Amino acid sequence: MLKLSKKQIIINYLIFCTIWLLGMTALVSWAASKFAKQTTVSVIMDKGWTITLQNKIYQNVTLSEFDFPPLKVSDEIVLEKSVLPLSIQNPVIRIYTTFCAVEMYENEKLEYSYGQELFKKGITTGSGYHTIPVRNPNGITNLKIKLTVTEPNAFNILQPVYAESAEDTLISLFKNTILVLISSSFFIVLGITIIIIAFLLYLFSNPVKDLFVIGLTSFFMGTLIMCINGCLVIFSHNYVFNTWIEYIAKGGTTLSLIFLFYKDIAKTRTEKRIYLFLTTLFFMYFLTVLFIDKIAETHFILILFIIAEVIITIAISFRHIKNEESFAVLPTITFIAFGILLSINFFSLGTAGYSDLKLTKIGGNTLSIMTLFSLLILIATLILKLQENMEALNYKTALEEYNKTDYLTGFPNKLKYDEITAGPRDDTQGIKSVFAIQLMPAGTNVPMYGELEADNFLVNFTNIICNVFSKSDLMFTFKPGCFTVLSGGEDIAAFNNQQKQLNNMLFEQIQKNPRMQYQLKTGFAFVSENNTIDETRLAAEKAAGIFV
Question: Which pLDDT score is estimated for 83?
Answer without folding.
Answer: 81
